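tool_call: predict_structure(chain=1)
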Amino acid sequence: MARDAYRLTALFIAIVIVNLGIGLLGTLLAVRASIEGFPDSVTGLIMALYYVGLVLGAFYAGGMVSRVGHIRTFAGLASLVSAATLACALVVDPIAWGALRILSGFCMAGIFMVCESWLNEQATSETRGRYLAIYMTLNLASLAASQFMLTTADPAGFHLFSIAAILLSLALVPVVLARIQAPDLPRARRMPMGRLYRTSPLGTMTCFVAGMTIGSFWGIGPIFARRMELDDTGIASFMAAVILGGLALQWPVGWISDRVDRRKVIGGVCILAAAVCIAMGLLPEGSGYFLALAVLLGGTLYPIYSLGVSHVNDFVARGEFVPVSSGLLFLYGCGAALGPILGGAAMDGVGPRGFPFYLAAVLIALVLIALYRMTRRAAPPPEQRESSVALPRTTPLILELDPRSSTPDSFSDD
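tool_result:
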């Protein structure tokens, strides 16, 4: 028992350090791009390319793990993403940054894959839900904490890139030194997109829109905050407030959705999020209400993905939860790759207030889809609904920790 606790502690420490580094890097790049005068549409594209790499890595990095093993894969990818971080400081060029963002996304997917496969190896049917909750909490909490490192040095200089690179390198230490037996890598399975859409059009669109909104927040949020005359501390506080709002409200919203027609909850959450975005777009620059609205924004945006996954899972057999959720994760990644591009274009065309108005338009579109779907079929009865589970947006391997996946898997691609 003590040995298992030590292994999990080492793994969770590595996860926290990785998120501190990559969370700082994402915000830093957006702010630095603004300082360098990159057009917002270009910055949006640069930030979106991280998700292109993440999606590619989530479904193809497994081959590397199978060939060279978990520890070597983690060490190699952590070194690469650390080097890519330093390269961003040395070569301040949109094309170079775009290529480095793809590389970083691919490497991070592989790193998450290694951590999640080890976490799955340690989990039992009794503990997997607990481990998933700890993993989710540590992810969001460390990402929120990483934002305040932006205030420790000038974003226009080299120091913050160095701090991010050091953190990504330090993540190697607990993994390399911990005596954890390398687990078998589960085979990635994904339901065909056509069948997935037919199963639940609203659920699939919800996951795609969740990617568009959260991806936009990570890619464009720091630029929006800077354009609204927030200083570095204000930018860090804004980003952290959104993340902490999501951490605080994700589980309560899921609890409500287990007891009310999920389509109504999806629509209601999106209406609230759209209202927050519109209010944020109407605030004067430098307003003190930004942080309060940021908490509400995170509390309404972050649960959308889990609501979409849970709604789709209400219509499938238990043995299909992992391939279904894997397909929805892919759709989330596609939305996250598109969102910053559209958000950056909105800011280029309308100004900084175009970003929250763009988010509001996307959310209202999802509300209309939810209303339409409510006229097409009845909600499943409460006894047939599956419990909502807050899920990280990392790789398909984390889906194995979903307590709903504990039954034998009978899924087939046929």
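agent: The mean pLDDT is 88. Proceeding to next step.
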